[in-house]
Amino acid sequence: MPAGSAEMQAWKIKSVEEKYGSMNGGKSGPFEKRKFIKKIVVDVEGYGDVQTIEEALQLATEGTVIKLCEGVHFCKSTIRTGGIKIEPYSKDKPAYILGDEGPTIKIDVKMDNPQDEEEASRKQVILKRLVLTHNGEAIVKHFKEMCLPSMKIYNKPKMRVISDMKIDPNMNTVLLVESGGVLLRNCLFTLRSLPKNLTRQVPALVALPDTHVSMINCEFVGNSGNLTTACVFLNAATVIISICTF
Predict the structure, then answer these.
(1) How far, in Å, CA of 204 to CA of 170, rounded?
(2) How many angstroms separate the Cα of 48 from the Cα of each of 45, 74, 93, 213?
């Protein structure tokens, strides 16, 4: 059966759903359909409840859906409240989340038992139909600082491998899961703003130990050479990837 065939994709979906519940809303697991009892609208022009994602997160409680109006939402926020969802206000109007230094979004939801998949499912953060990116200014600055002391050696810098990266909770990336879990649905992670001659690998998603990550129909795009995108999972408790493009 061809790897990219409709039959293969259907088989993958069936296999995941048998273990973790229906992707369209199962009875349990990370794909369980949830009710959100509170809504916060974010509009950068001031026509919503608040103007920034950070303000919305301060007001959010478990069971909150944060709706982002069309436009670019600058963000350097840590999500500490589990059981919330962030998605565009309108299905046909894109919402962009842009960071400039450190993680664009960090998820740090404390759990009583990080290995408990049921608790992880209940407290997971859902990001849906979003375009997430990093403008790369801090990344480029750091890269240039590394190159300056011995410019001749680094005229044509070699791509660094994942094992050479310094992984920490404040690193430059789009999404960093420090604790808790996340469900990503129909999201685009893009690092196209990085210079095309930057060949140092920059991860778009980093999951630290004992975290839970589920990705459905997501796409990861690097710079023009497509050398700057990656996903790093360091001993994550759960990783589910279905119909994603890298």
Answers:
(1) 13
(2) 8, 16, 15, 30
The values of phi and psi at residue 166, to 5°, are: -90, 105
For 175-186, the pLDDT digits (tens) are 999 999 999 999
Q: Round to whole Å and give the CA distance between 203 and 104.
A: 12
pTM value is 0.79
Convert the pLDDT of each residue in 16-41 to its tens digit: 455 555 555 555 566 666 778 899 99
- Quote the pLDDT of residue 68: 97
Query: In this predicted model, what pLDDT tens digit does every residue of 115-125 receive, in sequence order?
Result: 888 888 889 99
Structure-model confidence comparison of residues 23 and 131, the more confident one: 131
3-state secondary structure the chain: CCCCCHHHHHHHHHHHHHHHCCCCCECCCCCECCCCCEEEEECCCCCCCECCHHHHHHHCCCCEEEEECCEEEECCEEECCCCCEEEECCCCCCEEEEECCCEEEEEECCCCCCCCHHHHHHHCEEEECCEEEECCHHHHHHHHHHHHHHCCCCCCCCCCCHHHCCCCCCCCEEEEEEECEEEEECCEEECCCCCCCCCCCCCCEEECCCCEEEEECCEEECCCCCCCCCEEECCCCEEEEECCEC
- Whether residue 227 is predicted with pLDDT greater than 60 in this model: the reply is no
Whether the Cβ atoms of residue 125 and residue 107 lie closer than 8 Å to each other: yes
207 within 8 A of 233, measured Cβ to Cβ: yes
Every domain of the chain and the residues it spans: 38-242
